[in-house]
Design goal:
The complex is a heterodimer.
Chain A: H1 14-25, H2 29-47, H3 54-70, H4 81-96, H5 108-111, E1 118-120, H6 128-143, H7 146-157, H8 162-169, H9 173-205
Chain B: H1 9-13, H2 16-23, H3 27-39, H4 44-56, E1 57-59, H5 66-83, H6 104-135, H7 141-146, E2 153-156, E3 163-166, E4 172-175, E5 180-183, E6 191-201, E7 210-214, E8 217-221, E9 225-230, E10 236-243, E11 246-250, H8 256-261, E12 268-270, E13 274-279, E14 284-289, E15 304-309, H9 310-321, E16 325-326, H10 329-332, E17 336-340, H11 346-356, E18 360-364, E19 367-371
Parallel strand pairs in B: 6-7, 16-19
Antiparallel strand pairs in B: 2-5, 3-4, 4-6, 5-6, 6-9, 7-8, 8-11, 9-10, 10-13, 11-12, 13-14, 15-17, 18-19
The chains are: A mainly alpha, B alpha+beta.
Chain lengths: ~210, ~375
Amino acid sequence: MPMSGPYGSSSPDRSAEQQLWARFLAGEEPAFDALMTTYYRPLFRYATRFSRDKEFIKDCIQDLFLYLWERRASLRADVMLKPYLMASLRRYMHRHLPGATPATELSDDKTQLFDFEFSVEEQFIDQETTFHRSRHMQQLLQTLPRRQKEVVYLKFFQEMEREQIAEVMDIAPQTVSNLLQLALKHLRQYWKIELLTLLVVHFNLF
Amino acid sequence: MKRYLQYRIEDFVWDQAFRQWVLLPTRETDARWQQWLAEHPDKVALVAEARAMVQSLQLRELPLSDQEIRYAVQRTLGQARKQQAPFIPDADGPVRRLPFYQHSWFRMAASLILIAGLGLWAWTVQLPSRLSALMRPDFSYDQLTGTRQPMLTETVNRTGKVMPVKLTDGSLVILKAGSRISYVPGFRSREVFLSGEAFFEVTKNPARPFLIYANGLVTKVLGTSFLIRAYPKDPEVIVEVKTGRVAVFAQTDPQASRKMSDRELDGVVLTPNQKIVFERSEVRLSKSLVADPQVVAGPAQRFSFDDTPLPTVFATLERAYGVDIVYDEELLANCPLTAELADQPLFEKLDVICRVIEARYELIDGQIVINSRGCKP
């Protein structure tokens, strides 16, 4: 597959990332360009969990970068860039989502804004059984509690480390590990049950 | 890699190293996994299935092309340049004795003068633009439709979803949520006023051109399909052509009325996969390609090249996408390309080709321009 597949945006290594951020803070326009280009797709993908309005997301990302650029003199140099940008975007979007009030800000537990939709892309599948299994995995993912789902998403679909996930979700690293363990346990446990029922269904049918 | 011997399918699916090999393979990881599979042939089927599962399980994404990203970044950079505050030196160093300019009486007087000066400056600087705003005709939707006699028929899409609107001449308008169109009752003249975004499929009738007015931009068609984005608050109007040809020109164009009634397509003519951006404040039109050019109708293309000379490759792409590709024919005549480019969008196809011949491409005025120094001997 070409470089820009759905997962083609792995983050650059730490030191290059830090240099880029330092140059951004120093007010270099090429760094602005490179930074925004590098992180646009991961930020956009993350933002689609809060809104399905493409133009709104684009506006938010634009405003976020303009805001950072304007305040660059007062920003910290030693941040973990990707989680920092994602957390900032999340806060910004929550404040500006239609119907958001200062009270709903950040309290997404109540507002249920975090909306994942997993899908099964059939072009990768050439066997019926694989398709069924993928569908089962998808449905299992869908049944995960919201925070577990978010951890799974950040870990496996944004390829983030434990510390980075903690930063984005604003929780302790240990909590990340706990949530991840719970999620994987849930996925494995129900996977077996589902598999059994799948077999039973098959035997009944044939 | 011992632990993988015990793995069941779900363990593979949620193993980070495995996922990385499937989704972002490197030469090293690929070699390692291929070797492991060679040593454990009984695991081949299991791994193949886990692979398919990892690949197929995705998050439902909104489509976003690289072109869209490039455009968004450029736009943001432009905004950032505009905002760039003038350089303000930091606060003064330690002060021993107050110089005259730091006494309060001086400061007060100075600020009064400054305020008066700023006021005068703002007044003089803004006056021309205010005057021109007064004199510039207003081509907004409300202005255009409000003054028409007899009253126009208006369709407003309040459904929150896209809404198809069938016009009496057989043309179809797919109206985006929150957008509106107006036209003469019964659609006796093929004229539509648009506020917002809509996709048009216009029935062919060369004798009666179809005109769309959108924020000062006139789009004229004889029969084709295309998209117009003209929200009241947007500083620009965008027209993207899917099939056929359309002409666009500003409503302020001195020859606008002739261009509208002609049976010819005057003005800037757009062909499939081209788009125009109309800057409302500057009445400027700039042509480019749409974000993700689609194959235009015609015989199915396979885009599989085997030692094919580049000019032939480019000719194939030009035909398939209806785009112009500009390159030095002499320089590239002897460069062969072997590649399978069936499934990528056009710009990714170009990326692959350019990587092979160590070239770059640019979009200039709706054309693709290849910059190359020829292929290696």
